[in-house]
Input
Amino acid sequence: MDSRKIANAVPGRFHNRKIILASQSPRRRQLLEWAEIEFEVIIASTDESFPPELSITEIPVYIAKQKALEVKSLPEATGTIVIAADTVVVSDGKIIGKPQSPQNAFEILSGLSGRVHQVITGVYLSGKTEYSFSDVTYVEFHRLTEEEIWFYVDKYKPYDKAGAYGIQEWIGVTGIKSIHGDFYNVMGLPVSRVLQALKTGDL
Output
């Protein structure tokens, strides 16, 4: 095959544009690396509050947009494509945030035990144009014992995770009964949809 065609076929290159991930999440970084997307990380301080009239599915997209636009405004982001995301866990129509303490993490996981909840990730891409979407995955836990929950909380300390768990960790391997939707969305980024958006060239 012609060497130029091979170079153009490299998955991580998109029209010679630099890609920036506006996130400090190690899981989002890992997913982009797995997708062989070439990127840099720039993090900007962003207010994660949102207008009260937004629907639950709109909230993570709104927060992701604030992250993306904050980074996009930096001089070093000129001419780049910025990817930002925000993930929320929803149970009984209410957003469950990150746990503030071991007891809070235990209470959150006890509430998710034996039930189905939603994980919603909002994504915002900013380049020459903007593109945004949200992705929903339904996750059902087996009934978890108190001992199992405390073991996970004590060992894995999930205080930086919405819903108090990481699906790629022990509790996901042993406690998840079923998943309907994108597994990687639960990790924090529906990376296949991001890749499809980058491939269109519209950004």
